[in-house]
Amino acid sequence: MKLGWLDALEIDFIAGKDNEILYVQVALRLDHEKTVKREFGNLQKIPDNFRKMVVTLDEPSRNTYEGIEHTGLRQFLLQ
Asked: Which domain holds residue 31?
């Protein structure tokens, strides 16, 4: 696992195993539209089709945001 960058955009964690990649953004809460755009927007700009996820302390109101997973920390840790 490592910290990644896409141009000037930070990707919090990038994990790879068996030719698969997981990109993870971490935020305390998604309580402002600016935060939502920043956390999901960085992942949306990655041009590949590997799994992308935002992890927060919020309980997700829906499972995905434009194809990017949103999961709560507790659920993430149980995976």
From this structure: 2-13+23-78
